[in-house]
Amino acid sequence: MIRKTTSLFGAAAALALALTACGGTGGTASGGSAAPAGAYDKDATIQIGSLYEPQNLDNTEGGGQGVTEAFNGNVYEGLFRLTDDGKVDDLLAKDYKVSSDGLTYTFTLRDGVTFHSGKALTSADVKYSIEKVVAPDSQSARKSSFAGIKKIETPDDHTVTVTLASKSISFVYNLSYVWIVNGQAKGLTTSEDGTGPYKLGTWKRGSTLSLDRFAGYWGTAPTNKQVVFHYFTDATALNNALLTDAVDVVTSEQSPDALAQFNGNSNYKVNNGHSTTKLLLAFNDRKAPFDKPLVRKAITSAIDDKKLLNSIWGDYGTLIGSMVPPTDPWYEDLTKVNPYDLTLAKKELTDAGYPNGFEFTLDTPNYDPHPTAATFIKSELAKVGITVKINIITADQWYTKVYKNRDFAATMQEHVNDRDVVWYGDPDFYWGYDNPQVTAWVKQAEESDTADQQTALLKKVNEQIAADAASDWLYLYPQIVVASSSLSGYPLNGLNSQFYAYGIKKSA
Amino acid sequence: MTAYLLRRTAFLVVSLLLAAVVLFLLLRLLPGDPANSLLSVGATPEQIEAARHQIGTDRPLPEQFVSWLGRLATFDLGESFVSTLPVGPEIAARLVVTVPLTLLSFVLAVVVAVPVGFVAAHKANTWYGSVLSGVSQLGIAVPVFWVGMLLVTVFSLSLRVLPAGGFPQDDWADPAKALTSLTLPVVTIALVMSASLIRYVRSATLDVLGSDYLRTSRALGSSFARAMWRHGLRNAVVPVISILGIELASTFLGAVVVESVFALPGLGGMLVKGLAQHDYPVIQGILFVSTLVVLVIGFAADLVQRLIDPRLRHSLARDVR
C-alpha cells in the first residue's frame, strides 16, 4: 500500500514537502493592488487557496512555509516589517538606536499594543521571542542569522537592548522574521497569541484555517472581516476551486499549464509579481571536474536558459545569471557574464583540459520542475560532448546525500530565500565554493557601517561568483497570484512566502 | 458460536500485534531520515542533530518500538515528528470524513450493483444484458481519479451544480452542506466500485441460475421469483458477501486518491503527507487504524456469512467440538 500511494501521489506530495523543506523565508510583500478599488464590503470573508498548509502553528517548531504564509504580519508581527520593495519598516518597534561601535541596539516599543489574549506587550515578550528563535531546540530557518547575539536586556517595559558579538548590518532586517509572541502563552503549536490584525479562528487540519479580525488591534483595522485559507495538495483541485468561486485568490500558482484558463477571462486577474526562488544547477565545487571554474563556465554557456524557462513557464519568470534576484538591493543583470554560446563553451572545455567532454551524475529531486530541467540539461550538454547521467532522488535523499554528506557531483535545487547570495561566503556550504576573497567580502559586508557599503561589497561578491560560475543559476521563478476580479489589495509578490491579508478588499 | 467468537477475537488481537511489528520494522527499513523534514536549506549541523534528538530517532530501535507499543496499548498513537501534534485525535478528526465517504460509497455501489448484476445475469442473452456486462468491464478498467476529474468537469465546472471539492469547516454541523460536498466523491467511488461488484453479482447469479436446486425448486412448482427468493438469493449472496468485505476495506484505503482529487480532509491526505515526510508516528498510526478497520470488516463479513449460511455454522460447530 505504501508503494501504491507514493507512486500515485509522489509528485504532488514531494512538491509540497520540498517547498516546505526549503521554505521558511526571505523577502517581502505587501499590499499591491489589482482590480479598481471602488466600494468594498468591509465585512467580507476572503477565501484564499494555497498549497502550503502549516505543519503546526509555531515557526520555531517546524511550522514551515505554510505558517509563514498564514501568520506573518496577519497574526504575528515583528519589531520590523519587510515592505513590498524589500525595505524594512518599523512595526512593533517605534524607534531604535545603534551604539557608535555598532554592537548595541536599543529598541523602543510602540505604546498601546496588546496581544490577542488581552495582555499588554512588554520588553520581556520581545526578549522571550528572540530567545525562542535562537534556543538550542529551535527549528527556525533563521536561527543561524542570530548567532552573533551576546545578550538581550530589558531595562524597562518599553525598551529592549541587544548586544552583538560582532557588527551586523542585517540585524534589523533579520528581526523582521522574528514573531513577537506572548512570553506567557502556552501550546503555540496549535494556538497563537500575537499582536497582529487577525486572531486565529479555527484550524481544521488538512482543510482550512480561518483568521478573524481582531477588534483590539493597535493599528489600522483590516479591510475585511475574516480570511479563510483553504489548503490543497493537488494543483488541479486548487484551480478548480478558483474556477467555481470556492476561493477568491490563489497565493502562488504552481501549475503553468493552468494559467491559460485564467488569462483572457475577465472574471480573473493573473498577476505577475517578483519571486526570490532561483532554480540552481549546483556543482560540487570541491571535486573534479567542477573544481575548475572554466568547466563550470563552459556548462553555464552550453545551456540555453531562455529556452528552458520558456518550456517550463512560458512567458513568465526571469533570467538573472546569478544568485541575486531583482528585489535584493545588490542586484545587477549578470546574464551576459556566461552567455549561451556553444563555441565559447567548447573552447572553455578544451582550455580546461576536457576537449572531448566528460561524464557526470546529476542528482535530481523527483518533483517538478527538476526532472524536466535535468532532461533538458542532458540534451544541451550532449552538444558539447558532456554526458549527463540523471539520478532521480527524493527530497529526503537530497538532504542526506547532498546537503549533509556532500556526496554528489552536481545537483539541482530551488533556493527560495532572498538575500541568500551570502551562502557563497561559507566554504562549508553544500556546494563547497571556496574563494577566500568572497568569504572576506561577505564578512565585511555584514560588518558594514552603511547600507551603501554593504550593497557595494555584495555586488562585488555577486560579480565574482558569476565570473567563477560558482553554480549555474538557471532562472528566477515567477510569482503568480491569480485572483477573482472582485478582489483588490492583495500582495503581488508574496516573497518570502508571506501573504499579508489585511489590505484585501472584496467589491460590494 | 461463543467459542467461535472467542477464537476469532483472539485471532484478531494476534493479527493486530503482528501488524504492529511488521509496520514498525518495514518503516524503519525505508531509506531516509525523518529529521530531514524538519530542516530547511541553511540548517546547521547542530540543528540537524537537535532535530533527530527531538523526534527520538537517535535512540536504539528496540527502545523506540517498546515505547510505541507501550503507548499503543493505552490507545495513544504518539505525536507527529513534523507537527509535534498528537496523531490519534487527528486521525479521529479525519475519520469524520473518510468513514461516511466509504460507507456511503459502499451502500450506493451495492444498491446499484446488485440489481444490475442480477439483470446482467438473468438477461445474459439479451442485448442489454451484454451491454451491462460490457459497461461494467469498462468500469473496472477506468482509473478512479479520472472518473473524479470527469465528474468535476461536468458537474462543477460546466453545470456548476456541485462543489468541485472541499469539506465544510464545521464538519457535519450542517449535514446538507456536508452531504453536498461528499456527493461527487461518493458517486466517483461508487461508480468504480460497482463496476467490479456487478461482475461478482453477475457470476454468482449465473451459478445459481444454472444450479440443480433451482431447477428442482421450479420443477416442484415454485414461481421463478419464489425459487430465487427462497434458494437462489441465499446461495448467491454468500460469495458476494466475502467480496463485499474486501471491497469495503479497499474502498476505505482507496479513498486516498479520491480525497486528493476532491481536496477532502480525510485520512488519505494525511497518509500521503506522512509518507512524504517520513513521519513515522503518523504513518504507523494510520496504517494501524486501517489494519484494525480492515480486520474488523473481515470479521464482520465472516459473521454475516455464517449467519446466512447454515453449512458454515454447522461445519464449524463440529470443528470446535
From TrEMBL, chain A:
Q: Name one GO biological process term.
A: peptide transport
Q: Which UniProt keywords apply?
A: Signal
Q: Which superkingdom?
A: Bacteria
> Residue ranges of the Solute-binding protein family domain?
91-418
Gene3D superfamilies (alphabetical): Dipeptide-binding Protein, Domain 1 (3.90.76.10), Dipeptide-binding Protein, Domain 3 (3.10.105.10), Periplasmic binding protein-like II (3.40.190.10)
**Signal peptide: which range, if any?**
1-23
Q: Which InterPro entries match?
A: Peptide/Ni-bd, SBP_5, SBP_5_dom
Q: What Gene Ontology terms describe what this protein does at the molecular function level?
A: peptide transmembrane transporter activity
Query: What is this protein's record name?
Result: Peptide ABC transporter substrate-binding protein
Organism, by scientific name, is: Planotetraspora phitsanulokensis
From TrEMBL, chain B:
Q: Tell me the compartments it is located in.
A: Cell membrane
Q: Indicate the transmembrane segments per the record.
A: 91-119, 140-162, 182-201, 236-262, 282-304
Q: Does the keyword Repeat apply?
A: no
Q: Name one GO cellular component term.
A: plasma membrane
Which residues belong to any copy of the ABC transmembrane type-1 domain? 95-305
This protein's membrane topology, according to the annotation, is:
Multi-pass membrane protein
Gene3D superfamilies tied to this protein: MetI-like (1.10.3720.10)
Q: Which InterPro entries match?
A: BPD_transp_1_N, MetI-like, MetI-like_sf
Keyword Calcium listed? The answer is no
The lineage's top-level taxon is Bacteria
Keywords, in A-Z order: Cell membrane, Membrane, Transmembrane, Transmembrane helix, Transport
Q: Name one GO biological process term.
A: transmembrane transport
What family does this belong to?
Belongs to the binding-protein-dependent transport system permease family.
Name-wise, this protein is: Peptide ABC transporter
Organism of derivation: Planotetraspora phitsanulokensis
